[in-house]
Structure formats: C-alpha cells, structure tokens
Amino acid sequence: MTHLQAGLSPETLEKAKVELKENPDTLHQDIQEVRDMIITRPDIGFLRTDDAFILRFLRARKFNHFEAFRLLAQYFEYRQQNLDMFKNLKATDPGIKQALKDGFPGVLSNLDRYGRKILVLFAANWDQSRYTFVDILRAILLSLEAMIEDPELQVNGFVLIIDWSNFTFKQASKLTPSMLRLAIEGLQDSFPARFGGIHFVNQPWYIHALYTVIRPFLKDKTRKRIFMHGNNLNSLHQLIHPEILPSELGGVLPPYDMGTWARTLLDHAYDEEPEYTPESYTLSVKDLERDLSPKTMKRSQSVVEPGVLKRPEKVKSEEENLQPLLSLD
C-alpha cells in the first residue's frame, strides 16, 4: 500500500482492487500516464495536477487512463466555460449560503450498505425569491468538492435522493432545459465522483416531462441508475434501508434537519444573515433553441416546448417507471 492509499480501510482497499482495478504497485505510473496527456490540451488551464488530485479521476473512471484524462480535462474546461459560476465558490457566498441552509444539498450522517454517502434534496424548499437554480448547483458542487477529499468516498461514491413532494408547477417552470443541461454537464461529465444511484420520489407529472427533455443528454450508464419511485417508498427501501433514512423518506430516523450540512461547512458563519438578491449568471450554455438538436426537439415537443410544460397524454405508472435493481459495477 502506498501513502496515496493510506486513508482507505482494508475493505475499501479490496473494493478498489476488485471493482476499480487499482494496483498499488503501478499507482504512480498510472498517475503519471494521465499527467503526461496534459500536453495534448494546451487550450485548458490545468490548475491542479498533484498525485492525490489525479488519483480521484482515475478512481472515477476505473483506472482507464484515457477516460480519466478526459474527465480531468472536462473538469477544468467546464470551469473555464462557466467562470461566473466559480467566482467566490465558498460556503459564505450569499447565494450558496442561502441554498445550503435550505438543504441544498442535505447530507445524511449514515452511509449506505455499500459505504456510499447519501445526498438528499427536498425540492419544495427552493425559495426562488432568495436564490437561483445556479446557486443550488454551486452549493452542490462545493459540497461534492469537500466530500471528494475523502478517499473512501472516491472509491465508494454517492447516492442522490430527490424528494419532489409539494414541488409546484411554478417552481418547475424555472427549470429550463439549458439550466438542467448545465447541471448534467457539471455533475455527470465534469466531476470525479461515482454516483451509484439517483432516486426520484413523489415526482409529479411535470417532472416526468422535464426528464423526457434531459434524457438525451444522459449517458446510458446514468439512465440505468435513475429510479422513478413515485409515492412507492417501499421500492426505495429495497435499495436504501429505512434504518438510515429520515422520516420524510419513510425512514425510522427523525425528520432531517436542513441546516445539518450547512453548519458543517459554515461553522460560526451559519447565523450571519447577509442581504442577497438573486442575480442572473453569465453562462456559456447555448440558448434553448440551440441547446436541443432538431432531432431532440422533434422527439420532445409532444411533451415540452421551450418555456412551456404540457401534460403528457399518459404518464406511465410508477411500477413501469421503476428501473431494474441497481448495478454495482
């Protein structure tokens, strides 16, 4: 075992070896091979290239050198293309702070049975008069940056649960396809984390409609890990035991305290209340008409048109929407 693996338990070391093909004997060579590829992308400013940093990208892509480098390049490219999003990326930034205090994200104290950290989002908590969707995305990215420092989570990964209870149509109308694509690019394509599952619970029909729009931008691997539970919490509990879930999600634990993770990041600054008015961010994401290809637009127009959500003729039952049990590869 090298010093780069020092933070891993014996069980996680074995998991890294079996699932990720991590080999302590070739670890430094693996890292150097990724680092050597940096010269091929002079258009990107690689602001950090130390061993520990590159290692998290290798773990995220199961030690495929090329895929790890591509993820590393996309990580910095995403930040270059969306500079305004990453200015003052701190918990004390007013917009991020407001989002954190409303539980965007919430982070459960217990890991699941596979050692994964569970993030929860209670969508209805979004106060659109106080912060934007981009503030929420920034708060999530900041939180992931903090958690991914833990080598155990680099190997074991994360699970995301989104509870759409009481999330209104008016709130949903703010979730434009371009904004959702920005989130997908930031989380799926540009961050070195392993997401073992994304669970929707209590989702209304208009969330199904939005999912139809963003589905073309999701990788097959991501699609297979999205589970539409509806109000069937028993199907959620088949994958995540209720013993570690709060009561809002049908668990045996007390209701989740939305400020738990915010207090961890903010510490003494939690109770300070800065004045803040949501602002628009200058984003490099294309306009909606260009954001969706003609083929995608044609496919999705029966459900969603730019700026307008329509009720689909028929929404599948929750049982039909529940995807097969999660693959652990």
UniProtKB/TrEMBL annotation:
| Keyword line | Cytoplasmic vesicle, Endosome, Golgi apparatus, Lipid-binding, Membrane
Source lineage = Eukaryota, Metazoa, Chordata, Craniata, Vertebrata
Q: In Gene Ontology terms, what is one molecular function of this protein?
A: phosphatidylinositol bisphosphate binding
Q: What is the name attached to this protein's record?
A: Clavesin-2
Task: Give the GO terms filed under biological process for this record.
Answer: lysosome organization
Q: Which CDD domains match?
A: SEC14
What task does this protein carry out?
A: Required for normal morphology of late endosomes and/or lysosomes in neurons. Binds phosphatidylinositol 3,5-bisphosphate (PtdIns(3,5)P2).
What ranges does the record list as Basic and acidic residues composition bias?
308-319
The protein's matches in Pfam families, at most eight in alphabetical order, are given as: CRAL_TRIO, CRAL_TRIO_N
Q: What is its subcellular localisation?
A: Cytoplasmic vesicle, Clathrin-coated vesicle; Early endosome membrane; Golgi apparatus, trans-Golgi network membrane
Q: State the annotated membrane topology for this chain.
A: Peripheral membrane protein
Region entry Disordered, spans: 292-329
Presence of the UniProt keyword Membrane in the record: yes
What's the domain of life for this entry? Answer: Eukaryota
Q: Where is the CRAL-TRIO domain?
A: 96-257
Q: Which SUPFAM superfamilies does the protein's record reference?
A: CRAL/TRIO domain, CRAL/TRIO N-terminal domain
Fetch the PANTHER family from UniProt.
Answer: ALPHA-TOCOPHEROL TRANSFER PROTEIN-RELATED, CLAVESIN-2
Tell whether Zinc is among the UniProt keywords: no
Please provide one cellular component term from the Gene Ontology annotations of this protein.
early endosome membrane
